[in-house]
Amino acid sequence: MCEKCFIREYPKFNSTKEFEVFLAEFDKKIAKSIIFINQGEYKADNHTIYLCNNCQTIWWLSDPDNHWCGYFMIDTNAKKLIDKDDRNGKIHKYGCLSIFIILITFTLFRLIS
Ligand SMILES: [Zn+2]
Questions:
Q1: Nearest to 10 by CA among 102, 77, 100, 72
Q2: How much distance in Å is there from the Cα of 74 to the middle of ligand 1?
Q3: What separation in Å is there between the alpha carbon of 80 and the centre of ligand 1?
Q4: Ligand 1 centroid to residue 14 C-alpha, Å
Q5: pTM for this model (two decimals)
Q6: Which of 28, 34, 70, 97 shows the greatest Cβ crowding within 10 Å of its Cβ?
Q7: Which long-range contacts (C-beta less than 8 Å, at least 24 apart) are formed by 48-54?
């Protein structure tokens, strides 16, 4: 992170306005100090990878859309964010499954007695 790229990360864009402000700054810096590297994939996440020529920071950008807030973060932090979402997703799935099992058990118990 440096003044040639960005001095802060965006774990998510809170509004379209915030993203527009970010994008205006990003547009000024792209090609000058930030260069496009690649399209990236990590777990279920798709993002665009950029490198700062000045400080060699690798940035991941995920554009927001209707249901997705997007992010602009350093690669290591973006990975952490995705891992956390991934874990939460799993917890949520297990949560649903255990409620389902409890319901089945309860129904069977009612039928037997
Ligand atoms: Zn930089």
A1: 72
A2: 10
A3: 20
A4: 23
A5: 0.78
A6: 34
A7: 49/75, 52/2, 52/4, 52/5, 53/4, 54/2, 54/4, 54/5
